[in-house]
Design a protein that fits this description.
The chain is about 70% helix and about 15% strand. It has a two-stranded antiparallel ribbon. By secondary structure, it is α+β, with helices and mostly antiparallel strands. Helix 2 packs antiparallel against helix 3. The radius of gyration is 43 Å and the shape is rod-shaped.
Length: about 160
């Protein structure tokens, strides 16, 4: 944040000028050329604390920028951790969904056998078929959640 430039303001500023000129000769003045060399120095010893205040302000801005960078890095890390946890959770949900589909299909198979022998009604058979469909739909939703979690991880990773 260019703090050094403020320290340079403590140094004096020097200037030099050179001029050459001549005038017409008259009775009252010589007409020869005149050389003029002027040196100047200006040194601001006290400015009411402006330079010190500006140094403190720039140091504070630098620290604020560093803190902001750290916050962004921690947020990215946290987002990646959350996305990974979502991915693992959705994988577990898919495994559970597969088990639910298998159980619903087994229940449908048993309902068909029971219906065949008159131990179950047609409504029981329809309910078992509906349970298989619901379990399959839930499984597809869980698989979609896995794909979304993978996509989120890729997005956060910059791919």
């Amino acid at each position: 944040l260019y703090i050094d430039e403020i320290y340079y303001r403590y140094l004096p500023s020097l200037s030099a000028s050179f001029s050459y000129g001549g005038a017409k000769e008259s009775a009252f003045a010589e007409g020869g050329p005149r050389w003029t060399l002027t040196f100047g120095a200006q040194w601001l010893l006290w400015d009411g604390g402006y330079r010190e205040g500006e140094i403190k302000l720039r140091k504070a801005q630098k620290e604020a920028a560093q803190i902001q960078v750290e916050q962004i890095a921690k947020k990215i890390e946290s987002d990646l951790d959350n996305a990974h946890a979502d991915y693992l959770s959705s994988l577990n949900q898919v495994e559970s969904g597969l088990t639910q589909v298998e159980l619903a299909e087994e229940a449908l198979r048993q309902a068909r056998i029971a219906y065949k022998y008159g131990a179950a009604t047609q409504l029981d058979l329809i309910n078992a078929e509906d349970q298989v469909k619901v379990a399959k739909i839930a499984l597809v939703q869980d698989q979609l959640a896995v794909e979304l979690a993978v996509r989120e991880i890729r997005h956060l990773a910059g791919n």
